[in-house]
Design a protein that fits this description.
elongated, 98 residues, mainly beta, five-stranded antiparallel sheet, 7 strands, 2 helices, 14% helix, two-stranded antiparallel sheet
């Protein structure tokens, strides 16, 4: 039986992405706020969506299907959620819970 040695090299990836051979700076965004939304038309099924607003004021929705959607601002993202019959979780009351 022969031992085989492997050399593993861990490389720290810098925040740079190459696109078509050109370097493009990539900066990770900080999350300003995050809130959860619930699709009210599908009760009793619970279809959730998460809305994140970033420090550059852009927004991102992660829906219950695992799809991500990006928006230039939070207002556009909220409009999209309301159009898809989502309501902000914090706005639900006891009657909605029943």
């Amino acid at each position: 039986m022969q031992l085989v040695k492997f050399k593993i090299t861990v490389i720290k990836v810098k925040d740079i992405i190459k696109i078509n051979g050109n370097k493009m700076q990539f900066q990770q965004k900080s999350i300003l706020k995050e809130n959860w939304w619930l699709m009210w038309c599908s009760f009793p099924n619970l279809n959730w969506a998460r809305l994140r607003t970033y420090d550059d004021l852009s927004a991102e929705i992660l829906d219950c299907d695992g799809s991500k959607y990006t928006f230039s601002n939070e207002e556009e993202a909220r409009y999209s959620l309301m159009e898809d019959e989502y309501t902000q979780f914090e706005s639900l009351d006891e009657e909605d819970e029943q």
